[in-house]
Amino acid sequence: MLIGDVARRSGVSARMLRHYDSLGLVRPTGRTDAGYREYSSEDIRRIFHIESLRSLGLSLRDVRRALDDQGFTPSELVDDLIRRTRERIAGETELLTRLCRIGAAEPAGWEDVLQIVALLQALGSKSAGTRQRAALSSIEEAPVPVEALVEAALSETDPNVAGALRWALAQSGDGALALLAEGLGSPVAEVRKRAVQSIAEIPNGEATALLQDALTNPDIVVRRYAALALGARGAADAIPTLIDMVVEETNDVDAADALSALASRPALAEQIATGLVDGLAHGTVESSVRRRLAQALADIPGVTASRALADLSHDEDRAVALTATYILGIRNAR
Fold first, then answer.
1. In the 3-class helix/strand/coil scheme, how is the chain assigned residue by residue?
2. HSE-up of 28 (CA within 13 Å, CB side)?
3. Fewer Cβ atoms within 10 A, N terminus or C terminus of the chain?
């Protein structure tokens, strides 16, 4: 079969077939009387083998090794192809994500595009200072897509940069909340924590609703951050978690402050006092817990809190008794 017929039937151009010939990949078995290349059935079979291997991403050098080296084993080469393909897919995915984010920002001109690209690159910088500056300028200089801000906030490890990113998200409106809500369900504990911290910075009703849902999150860290944020917003459903935090000495000072703020509402003061007193009802409560509960009762108005402090002033642990006595003295002097 002449080269033109082979090209038509195989889909490999005559130019490529000549290239294969020059490399020694497929040399036609014969020649016609006029000197034209003439391919045998075995030659055509080899061409199809070459094309099959090339479709996997093999170079012509690797194709030749695969076909001619009897001792060649494909496993190592295939593993390398898998690795390179994954890297290429990751690179293309990253490019697609960046293009989508630029499109979402609806740039008015190429100057806007370049500014957005620069900010996106800065958010991914290895320098914490560069990332922080990008976060702070993301609202004023160029509208960085909220998806990029959320991704950065959920992956940021530097506390200063994380704070700047949470501020930027709070300024960006409600668009971030759905993405942050997804972060609450992440399998990674740190991502869940960063998600609830970011939601806590957004002062609107939708964020409050998400925080209230977070009170039942399986992750206790998420529940505690949600309770602190809700306490600052005057949400009564945070009270049980805040009391548990006092008992367990987990951000107990912040939890006690949140309870004190909530107790400024008479309708909640008795509920808080009762909850704290219930924490004292267990006979196995350690003295350190009793002392923290006494301190938490300090700013809770009402008879229930005063009676509990009076009881604690006679506690068997001297430090607890002195703490309660001191607090009672301050309360009586008011």
1. CEHHHHHHHHCCCHHHHHHHHHHCCCCCCEECCCCCEECCHHHHHHHHHHHHHHCCCCCHHHHHHHHHCCCCCHHHHHHHHHHHHHHHHHHHHHHHHHHHHHHHCCCCCHHHHHHHHHHHHHHCCCCHHHHHHHHHHCCCCCCCCHHHHHHHHHHCCCHHHHHHHHHHHHHCCHHHHHHHHHHHCCCCHHHHHHHHHHHHCCCCHHHHHHHHHHCCCCCHHHHHHHHHHHHHCCCHHHHHHHHHHHHHCCCHHHHHHHHHHHCCCHHHHHHHHHHHHHHHCCCCCCHHHHHHHHHHHCCCCCHHHHHHHHHHCCCCCHHHHHHHHHHHHHHHHC
2. 18
3. C
Q: How many residues does the chain have?
A: 334
- The 10 Å Cβ neighbour count of residue 246 is 25
Taking only the tens place, the pLDDT of each residue in 223-252 is 999 999 999 999 999 999 999 999 999 999
- With cut-offs at 50, 70 and 90, classify the pLDDT of residue 143: low
d(CA 220, CA 229): 14
| Cα(37)–Cα(240) distance, integer angstroms | 88
CB 225, CB 183: distance < 8 Å = no
Q: Which long-range contacts (CB under 8 A, 24 or more apart) does 78-81 make?
A: 81/56, 81/57
Could you tell me the pLDDT band of residue 140, with boundaries at 50, 70 and 90? low
Q: 205-214 and 220-232 helices cross at what angle (nearest 10)? A: 140
Amino acid letter, 108: A
Instruction: Report the half-sphere exposure of 93 (CA within 13 A, side-chain side).
Output: 6
